[in-house]
């Protein structure tokens, strides 16, 4: 209750002093993406929105790590519009789309990624995990094996192959 009261006092102070609301940061303002007189939000589609360095990607990554996949999807969708040549934006967008079951969207993102970072372990791991989520185990295994061949010491690849093995064993038990 004290936190709500402090937030109300902060808002009242800012409104009374004529200051912009971005000075008081709280979880209720998570979608604020730009600052100044023409503050834009992550939902804003204008091409003139200003973003500090990698703000969208950092925010999207945080939301993804906290398992807020819908929020990360929306943030990364904005990130690929603002930074269409950034592989990190596309990777986050594809992974978020996978987690919310938007495989049509993730397929589009993986096509874009194939042109950017196509022959890398991170690409093969991510697209493999996408196919694992869809239940397409043979295709998922093929991608994980490609990732392993490129980097046999990669721990993510090893965990994904183990997950793949467990998925196959589970299917055989039923």
Folded structure, characterized:
Keywords: Repeat, Signal, TPR repeat. InterPro entries: TPR-like_helical_dom_sf (IPR011990), TPR_2 (IPR013105), TPR_rpt (IPR019734). The chain is an all-alpha fold. It has two domains: 30 residues; 134 residues, Alpha Horseshoe (Serine Threonine Protein Phosphatase 5, Tetratricopeptide repeat), CATH 1.25.40. Helix content is 67%, strand content 0%. Helix 2 runs parallel beside helix 4. It is globular. It starts with a helix and ends with a helix.
Short recap of the structure:
Helix content is 67%, strand content 0%. The chain has 174 residues and is an all-alpha fold.
List keywords for this structure.
single chain, 174 residues, globular, disordered N terminus, signal
| Spans where pLDDT lies below 50 across 5 or more residues | 1-48
- Enter the CATH topology name of the largest domain: Serine Threonine Protein Phosphatase 5, Tetratricopeptide repeat
Question: Mean of the pLDDT scores?
Answer: 75
Gross CATH architecture of the largest domain: Alpha Horseshoe
Supply Rg.
Answer: 20 Å
CATH class of the largest domain: Mainly Alpha
Q: What structural class do the secondary elements suggest?
A: mainly alpha
| SS summary, helix count | 8
Classified in CATH, the superfamily of the largest domain is Tetratricopeptide repeat domain
Q: Characterize the largest beta sheet: strand count, sense, and whether it forms a barrel.
A: none
Question: What is the distance, rounded to the nearest whole angstrom, between the alpha carbons of the first and last residues?
Answer: 50 Å
- Count of distinct strands: 0
Instruction: Report strand %.
Output: under 5%
Give me the strand/helix succession: HHHHHHHH
- The helix content is 55-70%
**What is the overall silhouette?**
globular
**What is the number of domains?**
2
């Amino acid at each position: 209750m004290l936190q709500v009261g402090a937030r109300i006092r902060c808002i009242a102070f800012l409104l009374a002093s004529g200051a912009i609301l971005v000075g008081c940061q709280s979880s209720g303002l998570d979608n604020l993406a730009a600052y100044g007189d023409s503050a834009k939000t992550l939902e804003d589609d204008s091409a003139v929105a200003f973003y500090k360095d990698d703000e969208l990607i950092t925010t999207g990554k945080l939301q993804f790590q906290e398992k807020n996949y819908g929020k990360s999807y929306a943030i990364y969708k904005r990130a690929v519009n603002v930074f269409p040549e950034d592989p990190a934006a596309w990777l986050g967008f594809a992974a978020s789309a996978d987690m919310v079951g938007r495989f049509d969207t993730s397929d589009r993102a993986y096509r874009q990624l194939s042109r950017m970072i196509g022959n890398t372990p991170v690409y093969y791991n991510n697209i493999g995990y996408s196919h694992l989520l869809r239940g397409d185990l043979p295709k998922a295994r093929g991608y994980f094996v490609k990732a392993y061949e490129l980097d046999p010491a990669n721990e993510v690849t090893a965990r994904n192959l183990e997950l793949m093995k467990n998925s196959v064993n589970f299917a055989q038990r039923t």
